[in-house]
C-alpha cells in the first residue's frame, strides 16, 4: 500500500508520547497498527491516530521505524506486509522491519465509551497554565495531578503555590490527570471528552484519541486559601531579572528550602539570598508605605508568576496574583512585621 | 510544611505515586481465571477479603473453593452464616500468583507451586479491592490474613504494619469506609497449625466480627472541630474532676539544657479539649495549678512522660494520677506493638494517620542520644506549623480521654 510519508510521520509524532522508555509491558515500545490507526500504549497513556490508506494489523519496533521514515526524503512510501515483516520501499531504497502480527498491548485495560461531550477549547490553555504549579514530588501523589473540576476550575498545586484557571463547566465528573500525561495534551486540538473507569479519553478534530489514566482520589480543598485580604501592591518590573540572579544562591535539594527573603519598607523592596557559596542582595523601588514586612519565598516560583503580572496582594501567609480568568497564590514563610 | 498535610495529598490509587495496574503486575496472563470477580449474594452485608486464588479457585473461577474455603464455610455455618449467600467474597489479589519462570499457572499448580502474593501484586490489585468496598458498602469487612490487611491498610497505615498477629481480633470502626473492619487469621493458617487453641481463637474472632452486624456504625463529628486553641493557659476553662493532658516537647527527656515543653493540651471530657503554646513556666500558673490540684484526677497516655516533664520543666510534680491509657492498653491486650496511641486511636475510633505530617519533626535528630533535640522548633517556625502542632496535641489528649473511658468501661463494666 502507498502511504503519504508526511501523514504517517505526523501520526507517529502524535502517538509517540504513548511509547514507553523501556519495554516493561510487551510491545509498549512498539507502534501497533490496527487497521487504519497507529496505536501506542505505555500503561499511563494510550494514543491512537488514523492514517489514510493504511491497513495493517501488527506491532513494529517504534525506534527503527520512526528513524527510517524520518530520514527518508521521498514524499511517498510503499508498505508491504509479509508473514513476519513489514517492508518499506522509498524510491530505490528498501528495508524490512520485524512485524509481530499479534498485538499484545493490554488495550483491554480501558474501553472507549460511546458517550462523548464537547469541551471548552480553553481547557488546554488552562491545563498548560496550571501545570507549572503541579508538584513533581511523588511523595505527594495527588499534587502531581492537574485537578480538572466539573465546575470548570482547573488547578495545580505543589503545596507551596496554587494556580487556578476558570473555563466553562465540564460535562464529565471531576478528574485528577497526572501532569506528566496532561502535558502531552497541550499540543492537540481537543474537542471532545469522555470518562471511563480509571481513564479519561479525549478526541481531536484530526481523529486522535488520547486516553490516560486518572487518579481515583480526592483533591484537597483549595478554596479556603484564595480568600486573601491584605495590602495591594505592584512588584517592580525588573523583579524577574533580580529573582533570576537570586535563584543562583537559593539552590537547595528541596524546592521548599529554596528561599529568598524580601523586606518591604519605605517604598523600597530589599531582597537577599544566601547559600554556602555566597550571597546576593538587590534593592528596588515599590509603592509601599505600610509598616515593614518581611517574608521568604521561592524565587523561581515568584519569577514564574511575575512573567504574567506584577500586581498582587500581600496577605498574612500568601502573595496572591490575579488575572481575568486565573488566580495564583504563593505561600510565604515566616512573615514578620 | 505547605498548604496541605502529607495525609491530605496521599493517593489510595497510587501509593507513593507509583502506578500499579494489571499490566504492571502481569499475573492475569498466567491465570485460568484472570481478574476473578467478586462472588456471593451479600445478603447480610459481609465482605470477606482473602489472600489470592489458589489452584482450585483459579480452575473453578470462584473464591474459597479449596480446603481452606471448606473450613471457612463450615465455621461460618456453625456461626449461622452462609459463606456464599450472606457474604461477598474477594481476594487481596484477584489472579492466582504463580512463578512466571516455569510457565503457565495450570502446569505449575500440578507441582504445587502456588506462592503468596508479593507486595507489588497486592498494590496492583488494591484499587479493585477498594472499588468493591466503595461500591458495595459492606457493614462488616473480614480481613483474612496478612495479605488482606496489607491490601486494605497498606496505603493508609504509614507506620509498622507488621503481621496479622498484631491486627487479629480487633473490630475497627473504619471511618474512611464506614464499615466495621475485622482482621482474623486466614483459614489456611488455622488448618496448618496444630492444637485447638488457634481454632478457638479464630472462632472467637469471627464471632466478634459477625457480632458487629448488629452494632450501628458510630457517628463521629470531625474531632479537629473540637480542638480549641487558646492564646495562653490563663484562658483555660474551669477544670472538671478528671482531665487528660498531653505535651509536645523538644525531645524525649527534659533534663538536658535547651529542652522545653512547646505546647500542652487539656481534654475536659470526650468532646472538649483546649490547647495552648506553653509560655515560660512562670506564666503558666493556671496550668501548673491544675497539675498541683489533688482534687482533679489526671490521665495521660504514657503518664511517665508527662510526669517527668511536669516535674522537671514546670517544677510541679503531677498530683493525683488516675489513669494511664497506655498501661491499660497493655493490660487489656499484651501483644507487642498495640499499646501506642495512634494504633489505639485507629482500632478503637477508626481514625487513621492523624500525625504523619508532624511525626518526622518529633523524632530526635540523633537517634542514639535520648537527650537529643527533635525538629519541633523548625516545625513551629513555618507558617502554619504551630497550628498543626497544637491541633495534633489537642487530638492526642482527646483520644486519650476517650480511650481511658472506653478502657474503664471494659475493665470495670
In short:
Chain A is α+β, with helices and mostly antiparallel strands and 337 residues long.
What does this structure look like?
The complex is a heterodimer of chains A (337) and B (413). Chain A has 337 residues and is of the alpha+beta class. Chain A has helices spanning 5-15, 62-71, 122-131, 179-185, 239-246, 299-306, and strands spanning 2-4, 30-35, 37-41, 45-50, 56-61, 76-81, 85-90, 93-100, 117-118, 145-148, 153-157, 161-166, 175-178, 190-196, 199-204, 209-213, 231-234, 260-265, 268-274, 279-285, 293-297, 311-314, 318-322, 326-331, 333-336. In chain A, a hairpin with a 3-residue loop joins strand 11 (153-157) and strand 12 (161-166). The longest helix of chain A has 11 residues, at 5-15. Chain A is elongated and about 80 Å long. The mean pLDDT of chain A is 90. Chain B has a 6-stranded mixed beta sheet. The A-B interface holds A 24-25, 43-44, 106, 109, 135, 138-144, 157-160, 162, 198, 213, 215-217, 220, 222, 225, 256, 317, 331-335 and B 1-4, 6, 8-19, 21-24, 127, 130-131, 381-384.
Descriptors:
heterodimer, A: 337 residues, alpha+beta, DNA Polymerase III, Chain A, domain 2, eight-stranded antiparallel β-sheet, 25 strands, B: alpha/beta, six-stranded mixed β-sheet, five-stranded mixed β-sheet, 11 strands, 37% helix
Evaluate the radius of gyration of chain A.
25 Å
Strand order of the largest sheet of chain A: 1-6-7-8-5-2-3-4-16-15-14-9
Integer average pLDDT of chain A: 90
What is the architecture of the largest domain in chain A at the second tier of CATH? Roll
Strand order of the largest sheet of chain B: 6-9-8-7-10-11
Shape of chain A: elongated
Largest contact between protein chains? A-B, 34 and 28 residues
Amino acid at each position: 500500500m502507498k502511504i503519504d510519508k508526511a501523514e504517517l510521520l505526523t501520526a507517529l509524532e502524535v502517538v509517540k508520547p504513548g511509547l514507553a522508555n523501556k519495554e516493561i509491558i510487551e510491545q509498549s515500545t512498539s507502534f501497533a497498527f490496527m487497521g487504519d490507526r497507529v496505536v501506542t500504549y505505555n500503561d499511563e497513556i494510550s494514543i491512537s491516530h488514523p492514517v489514510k490508506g493504511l491497513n495493517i494489523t501488527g506491532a513494529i519496533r517504534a525506534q527503527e521505524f520512526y528513524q527510517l521514515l524520518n530520514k527518508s526524503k521521498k514524499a511517498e512510501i510503499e508498505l508491504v506486509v509479509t508473514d513476519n515483516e513489514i517492508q518499506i520501499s522509498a524510491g530505490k531504497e528498501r528495508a524490512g522491519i520485524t512485524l509481530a502480527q499479534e498485538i499484545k498491548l493490554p488495550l483491554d485495560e480501558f474501553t472507549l465509551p460511546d458517550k462523548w461531550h464537547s469541551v471548552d477549547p480553553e481547557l488546554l490553555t488552562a491545563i498548560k497554565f496550571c501545570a507549572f504549579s503541579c508538584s513533581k514530588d511523588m511523595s505527594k501523589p495527588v499534587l502531581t495531578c492537574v485537578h480538572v473540576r466539573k465546575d470548570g476550575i482547573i488547578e495545580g498545586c505543589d503545596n507551596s503555590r496554587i494556580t487556578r484557571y476558570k473555563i466553562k463547566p465540564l460535562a464529565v465528573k471531576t478528574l485528577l490527570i497526572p501532569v506528566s500525561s496532561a502535558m502531552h495534551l497541550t499540543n492537540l486540538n481537543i474537542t471532545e471528552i469522555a470518562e471511563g473507569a480509571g481513564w479519561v479519553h479525549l478526541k481531536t478534530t484530526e481523529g486522535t484519541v488520547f486516553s490516560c489514566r486518572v487518579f481515583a482520589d480526592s483533591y484537597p480543598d483549595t478554596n479556603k486559601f484564595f480568600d486573601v485580604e491584605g495590602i495591594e501592591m505592584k512588584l517592580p518590573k525588573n523583579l524577574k531579572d533580580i529573582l533570576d540572579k537570586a535563584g543562583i544562591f537559593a539552590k537547595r535539594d528541596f524546592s521548599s528550602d529554596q528561599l529568598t527573603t524580601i523586606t518591604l519598607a519605605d517604598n523600597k523592596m530589599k531582597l537577599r539570598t544566601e547559600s554556602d557559596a555566597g550571597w546576593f542582595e538587590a534593592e528596588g523601588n515599590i509603592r509601599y508605605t505600610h509598616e515593614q514586612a518581611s517574608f521568604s519565598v521561592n524565587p523561581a516560583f515568584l519569577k514564574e508568576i511575575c512573567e504574567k503580572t506584577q500586581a498582587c496582594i500581600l496577605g498574612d501567609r500568601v502573595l496572591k496574583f490575579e488575572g481575568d480568568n486565573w488566580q495564583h497564590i504563593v505561600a510565604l514563610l515566616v512573615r514578620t512585621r | 510544611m505547605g498548604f496541605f498535610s502529607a495525609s491530605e495529598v496521599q493517593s489510595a490509587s497510587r501509593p507513593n505515586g507509583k502506578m500499579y495496574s494489571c499490566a504492571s503486575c502481569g499475573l492475569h496472563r498466567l491465570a485460568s481465571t484472570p481478574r476473578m470477580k467478586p462472588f456471593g449474594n451479600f445478603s447480610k452485608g459481609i465482605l470477606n477479603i482473602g489472600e489470592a486464588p489458589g489452584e482450585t479457585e483459579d480452575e473453578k473461577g470462584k473464591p474459597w473453593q479449596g480446603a481452606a474455603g471448606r473450613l471457612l464455610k463450615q465455621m461460618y455455618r456453625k456461626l449461622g452464616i452462609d459463606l456464599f449467600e450472606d457474604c461477598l467474597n474477594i481476594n487481596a489479589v484477584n489472579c492466582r500468583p504463580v512463578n512466571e519462570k516455569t510457565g503457565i499457572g495450570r502446569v505449575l499448580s500440578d507441582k504445587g507451586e502456588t506462592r503468596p502474593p508479593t507486595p507489588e501484586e497486592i498494590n496492583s490489585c488494591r484499587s479493585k479491592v477498594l472499588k468493591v468496598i466503595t461500591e458495595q458498602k459492606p457493614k462488616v469487612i473480614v480481613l483474612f490474613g496478612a495479605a488482606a490487611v496489607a491490601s486494605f491498610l497498606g496505603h493508609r497505615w504509614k507506620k509498622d504494619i507488621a503481621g496479622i498477629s498484631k491486627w487479629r481480633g480487633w473490630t475497627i470502626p473504619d471511618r474512611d469506609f464506614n464499615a466495621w473492619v475485622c482482621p482474623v487469621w486466614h483459614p489456611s493458617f488455622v488448618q496448618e497449625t496444630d492444637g485447638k487453641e488457634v481454632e478457638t481463637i479464630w472462632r472467637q474472632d469471627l464471632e466478634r466480627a459477625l457480632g458487629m452486624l448488629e452494632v450501628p456504625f458510630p457517628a463521629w463529628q470531625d474531632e479537629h472541630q473540637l480542638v480549641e486553641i487558646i492564646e495562653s493557659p490563663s484562658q483555660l476553662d474551669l477544670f472538671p474532676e478528671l482531665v487528660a493532658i498531653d505535651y509536645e516537647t523538644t525531645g524525649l527527656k527534659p533534663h538536658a539544657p535547651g529542652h522545653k515543653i512547646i505546647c500542652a493540651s487539656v481534654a475536659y471530657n470526650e468532646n472538649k479539649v483546649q490547647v495552648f503554646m506553653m509560655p515560660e513556666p512562670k506564666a503558666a500558673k493556671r496550668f501548673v495549678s491544675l497539675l498541683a490540684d489533688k482534687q482533679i484526677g489526671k490521665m495521660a497516655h504514657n503518664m511517665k512522660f508527662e510526669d517527668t516533664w511536669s516535674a522537671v520543666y514546670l517544677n510541679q510534680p503531677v498530683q493525683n494520677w488516675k489513669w494511664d491509657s497506655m498501661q491499660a492498653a497493655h493490660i487489656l491486650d499484651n501483644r507487642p506493638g498495640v499499646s501506642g496511641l495512634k494504633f489505639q486511636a485507629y482500632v478503637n475510633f477508626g481514625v487513621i494517620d492523624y500525625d504523619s505530617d508532624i511525626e518526622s519533626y518529633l523524632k530526635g535528630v540523633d537517634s542514639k542520644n535520648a537527650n537529643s533535640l527533635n525538629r519541633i522548633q523548625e516545625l513551629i517556625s513555618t507558617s502554619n506549623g504551630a497550628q498543626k502542632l497544637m491541633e495534633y496535641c489537642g487530638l492526642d489528649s482527646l483520644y486519650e480521654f476517650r480511650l481511658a473511658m472506653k478502657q474503664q468501661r471494659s475493665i470495670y463494666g
